UniProtKB/TrEMBL annotation:
Keywords: Heme, Iron, Metal-binding, Monooxygenase, Oxidoreductase
Name of the protein described by the UniProt record: Cytochrome P450
UniProt xrefs under Pfam families: p450
Record-linked PANTHER family: CYTOCHROME P450 YJIB-RELATED, P450, PUTATIVE (EUROFUNG)-RELATED
One MF term in the entry's GO annotations: oxidoreductase activity
Family annotation (PROSITE patterns): CYTOCHROME_P450
Origin species: Nonomuraea spiralis
Known EC number: 1.14.-.-
Length: 395
């Protein structure tokens, strides 16, 4: 049996999972974590769902071993500190208290009401790109502003204050910087949101933070944590999907053509892009609270389990011909938004943004192509969320 010495992250091909993952046999593997402790890596789709469904696997990160050295807690601490309200890192029942307050605000029905405004935001940005002229960096001109503008409107964060959260979020998730610096960026971001929550309490608007601020269920600190989670989760991830997904489509013109010309394809294309690219490439991560049997082995209490979504979403036991990128593939259960109690709260929002953005971009610029050779597009190989740092295009 092979023992992995670290979580494989580097991709030889920007659209393929790390090669090491393709050489593994079976759904569950021994992996040595960055602090020397042994743990596990899940690469099977069925096994990943079992882990995410089982409350014996905790998501508090307490006691978790770091799958890569960059995720180790700061010197002198054994665990990362989780702020109040940061429910992605809580188990039930604590977690469900927050989730219950928020679910209705992110339902499919609620998101549908946002559709015209999201389309307007997308069209406005495309107008601006056309006005400025070629070449353009699609990350800064489109992929980042689309989800940022949308989540700002939803939460009630003034977009003109984006310098206070976009760069800070980028710093907080940039694994090239030392953990202390990332912690400082996170604290700065929370400081900004704490100030904003206070402003909303004093002068509420129609937005989500105002509604939660006046609802009386959350303390100031809790709402600050919730708002920080929603703002960061709401723009970094979708931005990376929009940019990396466009990069892939530009490299597969026949698939891009289907997205451009067939309105019925957008929804399946989004699921296939999510499956194929799996930008959440570190985790979800869980810690076993009891001995749990899985795939014929026993995961011992206290051991860390990391899911590899790039492998899970290419599991041949679940997806026929998993290496084939096909935007018409029948929508299958890709796990790019997770599964179980922590499954992505904003998934309907992200889906809607992507479903509108890719076709609109390809229709507006039918001659859209890379402005540099594909090999020169800078990749975010060791970031928390995989993607491209820039996407130079022309048309
Ligand atoms: C393409 C874009 C997105 C991807 C790939 C993505 C991915 C994920 C994944 C994999 C999880 C589960 C984490 C775990 O189990 O530990 C998650 C949770 C979450 N996501 Fe997303 N996400 C995206 C967009 C969004 C958006 C737009 C929002 C907006 C609010 C959002 C908010 C959240 C929140 C709040 C959670 C935590 C849910 C909970 O713990 O109950 N995400 N996301």
């Amino acid at each position: 049996m092979d023992i992995l010495q670290a979580l494989p992250l580097e991709r030889d091909d920007p659209f393929e999972p790390p090669a090491v993952l393709g050489e593994l046999h079976g759904p569950l593997h021994r992996m040595i974590y960055a602090d020397g402790r042994p743990g596990w890596l899940v690469t099977g789709h069925a096994e990943a769902r079992v882990v995410l469904d089982d409350p014996r696997f905790s998501n508090t990160s307490q006691g978790a071993a770091p799958p890569i050295k960059e995720l180790a807690p700061p010197e002198g601490l054994t665990d990362l500190v989780i702020p109040p309200g940061f429910f992605i890192a809580m188990d039930d029942p604590g977690h469900s208290r927050y989730r219950r307050l928020l679910t209705g605000h992110f339902s499919m029905r609620r998101m549908r009401l946002l559709e015209p405004r999201i389309q307007e935001i997308i069209d406005g940005l495309l107008d601006e790109i056309a006005r400025t002229g070629a070449p353009a960096d699609l990350v800064s001109a489109f992929a980042l502003p689309v989800p940022s503008l949308v989540i700002c409107e939803l939460l009630g964060v003034p977009y003109q204050e984006r310098s206070r959260f976009q760069a800070t979020t980028a710093r907080a998730v940039n694994l090239d910087s030392p953990v202390e610096e990332r912690g400082a960026a996170g604290a700065e971001l929370m400081g900004y949101l704490s100030e904003l929550v206070a402003r909303k309490r004093a002068a509420p608007g129609q937005d989500l933070i105002s509604q939660l601020a006046t609802g009386g269920e959350l303390s100031h600190e809790e709402l600050t944590g919730v708002a920080t989670l929603l703002l960061t989760a709401g723009h970094e991830t979708t931005a990376n999907m929009l940019a990396l997904g466009t990069f892939l489509l530009l490299c597969r013109p026949e698939q891009a053509e289907l997205v451009r010309t067939d309105p019925g394809v957008a929804a399946t294309a989004v699921e296939e892009l999510m499956r194929y690219l799996s930008i959440t490439h570190i985790g979800p991560i869980r810690v076993a609270r009891a001995d749990v049997p899985l795939a014929g082995r026993t995961i011992k209490a206290g051991e860390t389990v990391t899911l590899s979504l790039p492998a899970v979403n290419r599991d041949p036991a679940r997806f026929p011909d998993p290496g084939r990128f096909d935007v018409t593939r029948e929508a299958g259960p890709q796990l790019g938004f997770g599964h179980g109690i922590h499954q992505c709260l904003g998934q309907q929002l992200a889906r809607l943004e992507m479903r509108l953005a890719y076709p609109a971009l390809l229709r507006r610029f039918p001659g859209l192509r890379l402005a540099v050779p594909a090999a020169e597009v800078p990749l975010r190989q060791r970031a928390t969320i995989y993607g491209v740092a820039a996407l130079p295009v022309t048309w």
